[in-house]
């Protein structure tokens, strides 16, 4: 039996490049609290990502919680609302709920599966305090439209950019848009520190508040605010320093897999890769496709067919956030309010993509799809 092909496989740099940094950590015994590796990674990422006010944190969900905490301050209240997308990973809605606010779901656009600005504006009420939009699969949101809505209604605009490390739009980093933007450096991301994240913000004073929040609310031996322990440790920062040296190589290898898939699907009826956003330079973090009604298998049947051949595809995102137990009772979660998102959750799968996915394994991904298309058959009979 051939080795299974997973939907993602973390990139790891040569261990020989990491060992000197670990030896230095062992020598200094500086393990946390903004040590040398932490400070160097933070400084390098500010330059690399074009985000002057960037602060490292322990993971992507903590990054989003920190952004909401600092963005809203005293405006956080039990009946306050944050308009967001139902088409995302659970951390997006959980961060809103854990902040004490109520997530209000707005439908997405079929073109890119990002939140629809028109539906965002329609969801705003006197209780709305912020918008949390997700650059889904790393594809940029309609940043101009969302910015206009946020300013018109005097709302904070926060981007969950967990999928969007290194992505630019018209030459500008995606972290340059909105009041805050958050990143995840989880093991599955195209830039990983095993676990980690970051918050970028527009205002320098907000950066200072983020850094106070991540350190229990401490500032100059005083504790003027409630905070948490969200500091990145030296080991994760050391991994990040070595990973950053390889990121452009990793991006280029992912781009080759993306190109090969798109060429193949141009000749396969019924499977539609999600279109790239014009004027964006992607990181190719994911490869989502939509299974159409004219494909012989349903989406779930195709996932099973691939799995039988040792190919692990993922129904990402399924179920929708709005259909999860903590949220499905919300008025905004009703399926009739979110037809595009619900349809996408029934059709999308993410295919394996990672830097060392060989051409032979790419063919193993494509062969069952080609075979199903060639054989045809009755949907629902697989």
Textual characterization of the structure:
The chain has 382 residues and is of the alpha/beta class. It is built from 11 helices and 13 strands. Strand 6 (168-169) and strand 7 (172-173) form a beta hairpin. The chain is globular, with a radius of gyration of 21 Å.
In short:
With 382 residues, the protein is an alpha/beta fold. Helices cover 38% and strands 13% of the residues. Helix 1 (15-28) runs antiparallel to helix 8 (234-265).
Q: What descriptors fit this protein?
A:
38% helix, 382 residues, three-stranded antiparallel beta sheet, Aspartate Aminotransferase, domain 1, alpha/beta, 11 helices, single chain, Aspartate Aminotransferase, domain 2, 13 strands
Write the layout of secondary structure elements.
Layout: H1 15-28, H2 36-48, E1 54-57, H3 60-72, E2 81-84, H4 90-98, E3 102-105, H5 117-123, E4 128-134, H6 143-152, E5 156-160, E6 168-169, E7 172-173, E8 180-184, E9 197-201, H7 204-213, H8 234-265, E10 271-273, E11 280-281, E12 288-291, H9 299-308, H10 339-347, E13 348-350, H11 359-375
Parallel strand pairs: 2-3, 2-4, 4-5, 5-8
Antiparallel strand pairs: 1-9, 6-7, 6-11, 8-9, 10-12, 12-13
Helix pairs in contact: 1-8, 2-8, 3-4, 3-7
């Amino acid at each position: 039996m051939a080795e299974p092909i997973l939907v993602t496989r973390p990139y790891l740099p040569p261990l020989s490049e990491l060992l000197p940094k670990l030896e230095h950590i062992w020598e200094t015994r500086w393990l946390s609290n903004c040590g040398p590796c932490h400070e160097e990674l933070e400084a390098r990422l500010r330059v690399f990502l074009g985000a002057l006010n960037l602060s490292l944190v322990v993971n992507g969900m903590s990054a989003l919680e920190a952004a909401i905490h600092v963005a809203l301050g005293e405006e956080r209240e039990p009946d306050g609302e944050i308009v967001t997308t139902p088409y995302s990973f659970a951390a997006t809605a959980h961060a809103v709920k854990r902040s004490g606010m109520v997530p209000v779901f707005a439908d997405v656009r079929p073109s890119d599966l990002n939140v629809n600005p028109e539906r965002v504006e329609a969801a705003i009420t006197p209780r709305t305090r912020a918008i949390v939009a997700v650059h889904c699969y790393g594809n940029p949101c309609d940043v101009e439209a969302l910015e206009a809505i946020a300013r018109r209604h005097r709302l904070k605009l926060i981007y969950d950019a967990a999928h969007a490390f290194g992505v630019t739009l018209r030459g500008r980093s995606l972290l340059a848009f909105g009041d805050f933007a958050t990143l995840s450096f989880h093991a599955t991301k195209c830039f990983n520190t095993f676990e980690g994240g970051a918050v970028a913000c527009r205002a320098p004073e907000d950066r200072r508040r983020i850094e106070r929040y991540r350190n229990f609310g401490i500032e100059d031996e005083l504790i003027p605010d409630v905070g948490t322990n969200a500091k990145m440790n030296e080991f994760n920062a050391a991994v990040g320093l070595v990973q950053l040296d390889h990121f452009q190589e990793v991006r280029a290898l992912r781009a080759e897999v993306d190109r090969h898939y798109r060429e193949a699907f141009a000749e396969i009826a019924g499977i539609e890769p999600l279109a790239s956003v014009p004027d964006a330079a992607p990181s190719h973090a994911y490869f989502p496709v939509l299974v159409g009604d004219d494909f012989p298998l349903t989406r779930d049947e195709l996932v099973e067919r691939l799995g039988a051949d040792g190919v692990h595809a993922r129904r990402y995102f399924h179920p929708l956030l709005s259909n999860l137990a903590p949220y499905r009772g919300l008025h905004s979660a009703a399926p009739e309010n979110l037809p595009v998102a619900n349809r996408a959750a029934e059709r999308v799968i993410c295919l394996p993509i990672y830097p060392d996915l060989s051409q032979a394994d790419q063919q193993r991904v494509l062969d069952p799809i080609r075979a199903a298309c060639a054989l045809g058959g009755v949907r629902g009979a697989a």
